[in-house]
Structure formats: C-alpha cells, structure tokens
Amino acid sequence: MLTKEENERFCRIGPGTSMGELFRRYWLPVAATSEMEEEPVKQVEILGETLVLFRDRQGRYGLVEPQCPHRKAGLVFGIPENEGLRCAYHGWMFDTSGRCVEQPAEDMEAPDSTFKDRTFVKAYRAEEVGGMVWAYLGPDPAPLVPHWEMLVRDDALRSIGWAIVPCNWMQIMDNSLDPTHVEWLHRRFDNYVMERQGKNELLHEVRHHQKIGFDVFEFGIVKRRVWNGGSEADPEWRLGHPILFPNILANVNSLQIRVPIDDEHTMHWWYNARPSGNGPVKQDSIPLYEVPIPGVDARGHPTWSTLDNNSGQDIGMWYTQGPITDRTNEKLGTTDKGIILFRKLLTENMETVLRGDDPIGVVRDASRNVSIHIATEEDAGGIAERKIRNVGSRGPTGSSGKYDPLLAGKSGLELEREGIPVT
C-alpha cells in the first residue's frame, strides 16, 4: 500500500507537481491530424492546463494559452492565417512560438511602436508525426518526438481511436503492468458477457498463467508470461510485451497512449498501424473513431454491448475504482510485482528530473530516431492467445477493434483473408 502523500505524488499531474514535471519531459499526443485538417483550431486540455491548438495556413502547428493578452478574449475563436492565429476580437495575431506579429489598430495609430515586439502568449511546441499532433510542455532543449516504427512505417493502414476516461492516469497504467487480469477479465468475465448476450458459441477457452516476470529496458518495462503448459521458450517469455515509459502500452500493431487531462480524467488514444501486406499504402485521411465508456442502463444493469471487447472491459475496471484510486488500503500480492516495479521506476525518474537530467526513454539521437523498432512477442513467432481471440465469426475483440471503421462488420476470418491483422 501507499501513504496518502505517496499516492498524491504519483497521481497529481498539474504544473509544479513532481509527476507533472516528469510528464512534461515527454511528447504527448493532443489531437489527430485529420481533425485539425477539418477544423484547424481546437481547445485541448492536458496536464492540468487548458490550451488552444491551431494549424496555420502553411500547415504549421501552434499550442498557446487560451486567452489573448489584449482584452482576454478566447483564442479558440481565432482565425488561422499564414503567419499564425489571429484573435477574433481585435485582430492581434500570434505565431507558433507565441510571438505577437500583428496588432492592426496599434500598427495604424503608432506605426513605429515596438509594442507588439514585447507582446507574447505562452506557447508550447507542437509537431505532427504519424497522423497525430504531439505536444511538448517541458523545458528546452526539447527532445525529439519518438519515431516509433508503427508511427512512420509506410506499409500500414492506420486508424485512431479515442476516449476520455473519467479517472486518474495511473490506475490505467497499473492495468498494463498486471498480466494475470487477462485470464480473468478478458476470459472468464468475457465469457459471462457472452452468456448475458446469449452468444454461448463465442465462449473462450480459459488458460492460466504459470509464470510472470518483468524487466526494465531502455524505453520502459517488458512484461513476460508463460501460460500453463508452456515454457520459457515461448515468445511471450522470450521477448515479452513492452510498456513504453511512462504512459504507453505497445502491442504488435498498436499503441495505447494514456495522456492525463487533469488529475481525474485521462485521454486514451488507440493508435493502430496494421501492415497491409501489399507494400507501401497511401491513406488520404486516417479514420478517427470514439470508443464508448461502458456503464449501466436506466435500471442499473451493465450495458453488456459495450463490455464484449477488451477495451470496454478494461475501461470499466479503471474508472469504477473512483476518480483517483485510494491506494492507502490496497493489498498487493506477489502477482503485482510489475505494478511495484513501475512505481519504483516512476519514483526514480521523478528524482532524475528534479536533478535536471533526462528520464528514461527520452530520445535525442536523430540517427536513432529514423524508425525505432520495439521488440514484442511477435518478433519470436506471435501469441497463441491472440490467434484464439481473433478467428471465426466473432471478429476483432482486442483493443478497440470493435469500433474501428477499418474493421467494422468483418469477421476475423474475413480480415485474415484480406491480409489485415486485427490485433
């Protein structure tokens, strides 16, 4: 268990907090490129701050404080121009660095004034990589946006899912360091959900964990498992399943990215990059879809249709712990050693940031950042459990695949014939 003070230190992410300062050393996604092409100005909330993201008419991104310094009008109503974002109220314009580049009335009345040269809004860095806009809220010099392989490979069909989960970021990440919930939540409970929906033909075989283990590597933690009847020669033990510190679960063809909005809400992104099997592909626009939050109906019964997939099952377990889990009375067991290791790594890296050094996983080497491959169990032959999940008429149930427009309405066998991985 944790003390109240320890729990607060892990969970509070606003400016000036220890965890907030750690998060501010990493690039975090704030929008999908497709939504910014459709609507070039958007209010975003991240790490306890409300900001305005914009795309100027040259395609450059800016992320600025929400109010114009002139008369405090909202910049979310701003007009994107070639050189920046123009306030709707009096036309003051700010470039992507936050510098004021025009003050129309002032420039007319006092053309020689240096007033605009002394006027700024707070601004953060924003860059597009892989169909997502990434923000960096930390100090200079900024690291590089990590070019994880699936963000930059040219042979993948992409889609992006999102949900605002009403709970603290850490109870979501705790789940990623918890291998044994798979056999219970995503097998036994999943079978019960199928039973409630009258779909007994879709019940799973339930397998058990024989052994679990965890190792720290250069970008985070690898979790390993051996299923009953297996051995340490199996792919899931040899290469394992990586967590990219501090907030990403990396699957074979997807990233689950958890971005704190504030202390009690988390933006959850599902970034999918499925190899086409046919060489380079061109997508005019990457589909963006919402993943619903499971709950109860008007009579208090679970909404089973939102719980027949891994994402819905996980979300239900995350937010029903409360907005911030009370860890002062939790009872961790031997199977929770991954969670304990994660908290140890968080503590060490908060201290690293306080010393002024880079935490684990920060990328600064441009030659390394062309395409960073993260090994998974798939590199050693794949996962038998995944093949069990995604065949037959049931279709994709892992991640947010049920809601993915690229997969919608197709069974696992149909997708397999089309060469589209459904993991």
3D architecture notes:
The chain folds into 2 domains: 110 residues, Rieske [2Fe-2S] iron-sulphur domain (Rieske Iron-sulfur Protein), CATH 2.102.10; 269 residues, Naphthalene 1,2-dioxygenase Alpha Subunit, Chain A, domain 1. The chain has an 8-stranded mixed beta sheet with strand order 12-13-14-15-16-17-11-18. A 6-stranded antiparallel beta sheet has the order 1-10-9-4-3-2. It has a 4-stranded antiparallel beta sheet with strand order 5-6-7-8, with no helix packed on it. A hairpin with a 3-residue loop joins strand 15 and strand 16. It has 423 residues and is α+β, with helices and mostly antiparallel strands.
Give the neighbour order of strands across the main sheet.
12-13-14-15-16-17-11-18
CATH architectural group of the largest domain: Alpha-Beta Complex
CATH class bucket of the largest domain: Alpha Beta
Coarse morphology: globular
Biggest sheet statistics: 8 strands, mixed
User: Beta-strand percentage?
Assistant: 15-25%
Count of DSSP E strands?
Answer: 18
Number of helices: 12
Q: Which percent range fits the helix content? A: 10-25%
> Which radius of gyration do the C-alpha atoms yield?
23 Å
H-E string: HHEHEEEEEEEHEEHEHHEEHEEEEEHHHH
The number of domains is 2
> Which class do the helix and strand fractions yield?
alpha+beta
Oligomeric state of shown chains: single chain
Instruction: Output the CATH topology of the largest domain.
Output: Naphthalene 1,2-dioxygenase Alpha Subunit, Chain A, domain 1
Mean pLDDT value: 92
Low-confidence stretches: 387-394
